[in-house]
Amino acid sequence: MPQKGRHGSLIERPRGTIHIEDFRNCPERMAQLLKLLKNNCSTLIVAESTSQVLQLAHYISSKLGEVLDRLAVFHPQMEEAHIDRLMERQLEGKLDILISTGFLPEELNNYKFEQTVYFHLPYLESECRLATATSKVILLAGESQIREAAEHIKTIAPQREVLGELYKTLKYRYDKLGQNQVSLEEVCLFLRTYYSKAASHTVDISFYVFREMGLINYVKAGNNYSFKINHNVRSDLQNSPTYRWAIQTSDKCQKFQRRLLTAKVEELKNLFS
């Protein structure tokens, strides 16, 4: 899903004629996915999140053991060494199935897959033009995925009330307990009381917002934040470029996904071409 400062970039491919296989609202998505993988086409599977990438890899490996040595995964938290290994497998002709989030490493820019399966509904139009097949795009998501996506979208745009509670907690620790450090895990657990899908990016966005508002200064080292509360500062959330970006992006994502779900095949061809 869209995030600021993520590893990797959206890779666009040459525009051309696209064949759409429309399995939106398919009741048996997993079974259909396995069927698509049995056609021996090189396949890019676009997943919604890192957790979904790993879940799909585990599921496919358990059901189709014969593809294990040809399957690979990518998500933004992976290190450069893993990307290098992906490139080696590509050159060796051992990369037939790649499961990835909507952001791919630039090193895979020129890799062409025969088919691309969108296991979730893309969040933005730019995600419809990933490095992919020149001929076939398969949509394997529907209404239930919009509901799931809504939970992820919330994590990039924490609400005013949630940010207020987090700030109060940090201020209490700083003023009353004399603590000026907090771990990413602690803040993530706090945010998950409001958003079940809250992750490290939710924490980073929250701290970006506080700093842009002038409420705190902080330094992040590893998974720890050292912070200082700036007292007697009055500011509004609209003073934060990150907050404005998050709210605007959240709104765009929800509208675009709804458009994808209801679009006719001809419109889909234009979006994915």
Compact overview of the structure:
The protein has 273 residues and is α/β, with parallel strands linked by helices.
Cα(first) to Cα(last) distance is 20 Å
Poorly predicted runs? 4-15
Per CATH, the architecture of the largest domain is 3-Layer(aba) Sandwich
Number of domains: 2
Helix content: 40-55%
Outline: elongated
Number of strands: 9
Strand content: 5-15%
Class from secondary-structure proportions:
alpha/beta
Can you tell me the CATH class of the largest domain? Answer: Alpha Beta
CATH superfamily of the largest domain: P-loop containing nucleotide triphosphate hydrolases
How many distinct helices? 9
Strand arrangement in the largest pleated sheet: 1-6-5-2-4-3
Describe the protein in words.
By secondary structure, this protein is α/β, with parallel strands linked by helices. The chain folds into two domains: 19-141, Rossmann fold (3-Layer(aba) Sandwich); 154-251, Winged helix-like DNA-binding domain superfamily/Winged helix DNA-binding domain (Arc Repressor Mutant, subunit A, Orthogonal Bundle), CATH 1.10.10. Helices cover 42% and strands 14% of the residues. It is built from nine helices and nine strands. The protein has helices at residues 29-37, 50-63, 80-91, 143-154, 160-175, 184-191, 200-212, 241-262, 265-272; strands at residues 19-22, 43-46, 71-74, 97-100, 115-118, 136-139, 181-183, 216-221, 224-229. The strands form two sheets. Strands 1-6-5-2-4-3 form a six-stranded parallel sheet, sandwiched between helices. The protein has a three-stranded antiparallel sheet with strand order 7-9-8. A hairpin with a 2-residue loop joins strand 8 (216-221) and strand 9. Helix 4 (143-154) packs antiparallel against helix 8 (241-262). It starts with 18 loop residues before the first strand and ends with a helix. Residues 4-15 have low confidence and may be disordered.
